[in-house]
Design a protein that fits this description.
By secondary structure, the chain is of the alpha/beta class. It has a single domain (about 5-285), classed as Alpha-Beta Barrel (TIM Barrel), CATH 3.20.20.70. Helices cover about 40% and strands about 20% of the residues. It is built from 11 helices and 11 strands. It has helices at about 20-25, 35-50, 65-70, 80-85, 115-125, 140-160, 175-190, 215-220, 235-240, 255, 265-285; strands spanning about 5-10, 60-65, 70-75, 75, 90-95, 105, 130-135, 165-170, 200-205, 225-230, 250. The strands form 2 sheets. Strands 1-2-5-7-8-9-10-11 form an 8-stranded parallel barrel, surrounded by 4 helices. Strand 10, helix 9 and strand 11 (about 250) form a beta-alpha-beta unit. Helix 6 runs parallel beside helix 7 (about 175-190) and helix 9 runs parallel beside helix 11 (about 265-285). The protein is globular, with a radius of gyration of 18 Å. The two termini are about 15 Å apart.
């Protein structure tokens, strides 16, 4: 993960984002009558992507939803399939969503049962975790609250031998995005002072307005890797912006599945996914 060329596939849509993801894939809400059926459908989509010939060495890691970790792909537990069949490091989304907006940010909701989940993750062969907060204005106190909480929970995660992906997303639509990102950089650098080199974190950040703003994080010895979320940019724009960030790699979700359809036969599915993987890979190796 530290030196490999490639990107991370974000396959962690949860209950709130699953219907939209399925809709983009061509499966409308009348195709299921329960959450269980809905999650069966999204798992089939994720498994199809993982089993595709295009899901290859260009993919360094994959972020999974809890129910994906608990299911199987081609007869193997998902994390085991990813590592043993594909050489892809599995990550687990551990957050329970966002708290209500307060002070221009949304911190993480409480995560009841986190220790039990982390214990299960270790047993399943998970490499790391992911948790997402949101920054919607350049508020020093708000950014401090988001980053402080992320690193506090990250320390618990690191105690299990897992690598936390800390994700304080800056909303790409806000007018003071560049200022919020400068505040974010300073807060993260301060928190990294207490992170030992032999127990690193990863960072998942919005693609910055100022190119290469996050180079101090990319080069920091306590940071295993800095990855980018697409944040709502169309894939081509996200790739173009990412290609200007040296050392930052992609961790795209919607942009990765863009253009795929349940109606495609396997040949067409693999062809479209291969083109997507190639474009994201190219943007990630600059």
């Amino acid at each position: 993960m530290r030196s490999g060329k490639g990107f991370i596939a974000a396959l962690d849509q949860s209950g709130g984002s699953t219907p939209k993801a399925l809709g983009l894939y061509g499966i409308t809400s009348d195709a299921w009558s329960s959450d269980e059926e809905m999650f069966d459908l999204i798992h089939a989509m994720r498994a199809r992507m993982m089993m595709s010939s295009a899901f290859d060495e260009r993919v360094l890691g994959a972020i999974l939803f809890e129910m994906t970790m608990d299911r199987a792909v081609d007869g193997l537990p998902t994390a085991q399939y990813l590592w043993e069949r594909k050489g892809v490091l599995p990550f687990l989304k551990v957050d329970q969503g966002l708290a209500d907006p307060d002070g221009g940010v949304q911190v993480l909701k409480d995560i009841p049962g986190l220790d039990a989940l982390l214990t299960r993750a270790v047993k399943a062969g998970i490499f790391g975790t992911k948790m997402r907060s949101v920054i919607a204005t350049a508020s020093a106190s708000g950014v401090r609250a988001v980053v402080g909480q992320q690193f506090e929970i990250g320390a618990r995660i690191r105690s299990y031998g897992l690598v936390p992906i800390i994700e304080p997303e800056v909303d790409i639509t806000i007018p003071d995005k560049a200022e919020a990102e400068r505040m974010l950089l300073d807060e993260i650098l301060g928190c990294l002072e207490s992170v030992p080199v032999d127990s690193p974190v990863m960072l998942k950040l919005s693609i910055p307005t100022v190119d290469d703003l996050y180079r101090p994080l990319i080069e920091h010895p306590s940071v295993l890797r800095v990855v980018a979320l697409s944040g709502g940019y169309p894939r081509d724009e996200a790739n173009e912006r990412l290609s200007r960030q040296h050392g930052m790699i992609a961790s795209f979700s919607r942009a990765l599945a863009e253009g795929l359809s349940v109606e495609m036969d396997d040949t067409e599915f693999d062809r479209v996914l291969d083109g997507t993987v190639a474009s994201i890979y190219a943007a990630s190796i600059t």
